[in-house]
Write a structure and sequence with these properties.
This protein is 54% helix and 18% strand. By secondary structure, the chain is of the alpha/beta class. Strand 5 (251-260) and strand 6 form a beta hairpin. The termini are far apart.
């Protein structure tokens, strides 16, 4: 009789055999599905051939009694395989047993059929009755199969067979029942894991929300679950696992708090049953919704309702609310603006402008006292509220510091650029709303930016007369874009005379604006406004095209051989393709380039090294169009710059012309300018000549051409045409209209 060790070895062999079969069956299922004929044929052959191999290595239990693993294999096959596969395995086993013959052949056949029937019965039972799944079901099939075997043997007619049964059943019941239970449970775990893991992982891989699946006491976690909760790849932490397992199936809305280094995060959990393709309830599926992310998004949205997205400062409305809620009775509001923003955007793109705005925001946060509050109002305008008894002093100190400029580096290879900062101040007043106080500071800022201020060094505090002046400026700024479309603009032309023989040699085109409501608006007022509003490229092109049209008409009607000088704004030179457009426009009208002079400010001349300015000036030089430097001597242009730009004429400003008769220094400056111009092959022209003494001084100093009220005021188009037809011979001949 075999020892206990032999029984143990036999049991271990059965475990290994069924484990291998389970693995092979799982691989087959991954390649083909459960109902595929190839699956059924291959799995049936695997299980059937295994029983034949088992018959070749039998275990002798008692004299005449042979035990092998076929009953165990067939019982398990009937449970886990489809009917055709299990039937094929049984048929192979029966055929092998009949072929082998010997003692107990029919008992072996009966055992094979009984095992097959028991497995099929348990399969149906487990599919229809979930409570029979697991180890209880395997114990039931073991007992049931042996009971059927016992009943079959009891009804055999031969007494020898009954004696055989008495000798065989005890060892069979001792070995076969635990083997069936152990091997069945092993196969159940292996097969169910292989059948479901691929399905589970496929489901998890495409999910963007955190998902966890619990099957057969095992966990599968989606990458989103691991990332969101910071769990281990194998299973969630004990705290999270316990919370998930306590949630009943088919339920939603359960709160799952999870501790993390940055605080507690909250998830809502939905629990669903995880089922196999056959409808078996395999475990639980948990879908988590990160409420923390939604709460964070809502909090961020609420934050940007009151904060500027670029600078993280308060918005203007939030600043007004903050001032309204404050208990402060006094203080000041400081309005801050960066007028260079439009220019920086044109030269460096929006990225450069954003860097400027962020630099100003950081500058304000660094300079302001702790109790002060900064905000970005709109565009390049900021506001700073300094509350309390020391608010006025703090605001004035900040204003002086800010007006010194802000060092800004936009190009790593260039020196820091000193950005201009303008300020305006208003006292905090509880009798009006905070929004009105902020608006008053804004009006003081606009007033401070006027180019003709006589007290530029004084701090611009708001006053009622400033408000009235700013209101007019705002009305002008609103009306200016419509001036072109409503035919409110016109050109006048101031004649240019050859000083030697008082011959009419040209004219300067000057822009005028008459608004139906505001009346005549001074160019000294609306031109700077147009620059601030970015309207100069459009206004400048209107002046150029209309001046060229007038020149073309004069050349045709009156054979006018003189030139027309047209002022060009620095912002026009920053427009891509401006120079080429000027040359093309003249060519379309068959006008020689020398007939038009473009007057540039010294600012534009100094900026000639910038890429767009350099490109436009190169196009103008290539077209042989004369360039004139206006108000020469008041800026920073150099002789080298004049040579590079091929300037044709220098205009001596009226301030120097006026002093030629009574100030030796002005006379020396004019003489030096004229001599330098002639040495460079240029023409010198005096501006603003109002007296005969000034004209005589300029003639004596060698000036070539002049313009001014002594000869003519700026003339309307018709009056200038009359001047072409009836030239003057001396200043006394001019009507000076």
């Amino acid at each position: 009789m075999p020892s206990t060790a032999q029984f143990t070895v036999q049991l271990a062999q059965n475990v290994a055999v069924l484990g291998g079969l389970a693995t092979l069956h799982g691989l087959i299922l991954r390649r083909w599905h459960q109902q595929d004929p190839r699956t059924q044929l291959t799995s049936g052959l695997l299980f059937g051939l295994t029983t034949l191999v088992g018959m070749q290595v039998p275990l002798q239990l008692l004299p005449g009694v042979i035990y092998d693993a076929r009953s165990v294999v067939l019982t398990v096959a009937g449970v886990v395989l489809p009917g055709p596969s299990a039937g094929l395995a049984t048929a192979i086993t029966v055929a092998g047993r009949l072929t082998h013959g010997g003692v107990g052949v029919w008992a072996g056949v009966a055992a094979a059929l009984t095992s097959f029937a028991a497995g099929v019965a348990l399969r149906r039972l487990r599919l229809n009755q979930p409570r029979w799944r697991g180890w209880r079901g395997w114990l039931a099939v073991a007992l049931f199969s042996h009971a059927l075997l016992l009943l079959t043997q009891l009804f055999l007619p031969a007494a020898a067979n009954r004696a055989f049964l008495v000798e065989v059943m005890p060892p069979l019941l001792v070995v076969f029942v635990p083997a069936t239970i152990a091997l069945g449970v092993l196969l159940d775990l292996i097969q169910r894991e292989q059948l479901t893991s691929a399905m589970v992982m496929a489901a998890l891989s495409g999910r963007t929300s955190p998902i966890a699946v619990h099957l057969n006491q095992s966990w599968w976690l989606s990458p989103a679950f691991i990332s969101a909760l910071g769990q281990h790849r194998g299973a969630p932490t004990a705290e999270v696992a316990e919370a998930l397992l306590s949630i009943p199936p088919h339920s939603t809305g359960h709160d799952l708090p999870v501790s993390s280094p940055d605080g507690t995060r909250h998830f809502t959990v939905e629990c669903l049953p995880a089922q196999s393709e056959a409808g078996l309830d395999l475990g639980r599926l948990y879908i988590l919704q990160d409420e923390s992310a939604e709460q964070a998004a809502l909090a961020r949205a609420r934050h940007f309702e009151s904060h500027d997205a670029l600078t993280e400062l308060l918005t203007g409305r939030a600043l007004a609310s903050h001032m309204e809620a404050s208990l402060a009775r006094d203080g000041a509001v400081l309005s801050v603006d960066a007028p260079d923003l439009r220019t920086i955007n044109g030269r460096h793109g929006w990225t450069g402008g954003d860097l400027l705005l962020q630099a100003i925001a950081n500058h304000l946060q660094t300079l302001k006292p702790p109790e002060a509050v900064a905000a970005r109002i709109v565009g390049s305008e900021f506001a700073l509220w300094c509350p309390g008894a020391n608010g006025l002093v703090a605001a004035e100190g900040l204003a002086r510091t800010l007006r010194a400029g802000l060092p800004l580096t936009l190009d790593p290879d260039a020196e820091p650029h000193l950005a201009r900062i303008d300020v305006g101040l208003a006292r905090f007043d509880r009798r009006v709303s905070p929004q009105v106080v902020i608006e008053r500071a804004h009006q003081a800022l606009i007033w401070a930016q006027e180019p003709d201020r006589t007290d530029a060094e004084a701090l611009p505090w708001y006053a009622s007369e400033i408000g009235r002046d700013v209101d007019r400026r705002i009305r002008l700024l609103q009306a200016l874009p419509l001036a072109i479309d409503h035919d409110e603009l016109r050109l006048v032309f101031q004649p240019v005379w050859d000083l030697a023989d008082l011959r009419l040699v040209g004219a300067e085109a000057l822009l005028r604006w008459r608004n139906p409501e505001l009346g005549d608006v001074s160019p000294g007022l609306f031109v700077p406004l147009a620059e601030q509003a970015g309207l100069m490229p459009r206004l400048g092109w209107w002046v150029f095209t209309n001046a060229v049209e007038a020149l073309e008409r004069w050349r045709v009607r009156h054979r006018f051989e003189g030139t027309v000088a047209i002022n060009v704004s620095p912002t026009q030179l920053l427009q891509d393709g401006f120079g080429a457009a000027v040359i093309r426009h003249l060519g379309d009208r068959d006008l020689p380039a020398q007939a038009v002079e473009l007057e540039l400010t010294e600012t534009a001349v100094v900026d000639h090294d910038r890429a767009l300015v350099r490109s436009n000036l190169a196009a103008l030089r290539a077209g042989d169009l004369p360039l004139v430097v206006d108000d020469f001597g008041t800026g920073y242009s150099s002789l080298l710059t004049l040579q590079r730009l091929h300037v044709r004429k220098l205009k001596i400003p009226r301030e120097f012309v006026k002093g030629t008769c009574d100030r030796a220094s002005d006379r020396a400056i004019v003489k030096a300018t004229v001599d330098m111009a002639h040495a460079l092959g240029l023409t010198a022209q005096g501006e603003g000549v109002e007296t005969e003494a000034q004209a005589a001084a300029l003639r004596e100093l060698g000036c070539d051409t002049v313009q001014g009220f002594l000869f003519d005021r700026p003339l309307e188009v018709e009056a200038f045409e009359a001047r072409i037809q009836c030239p003057i011979t001396s200043p006394e001949d001019s009507p000076r209209t």
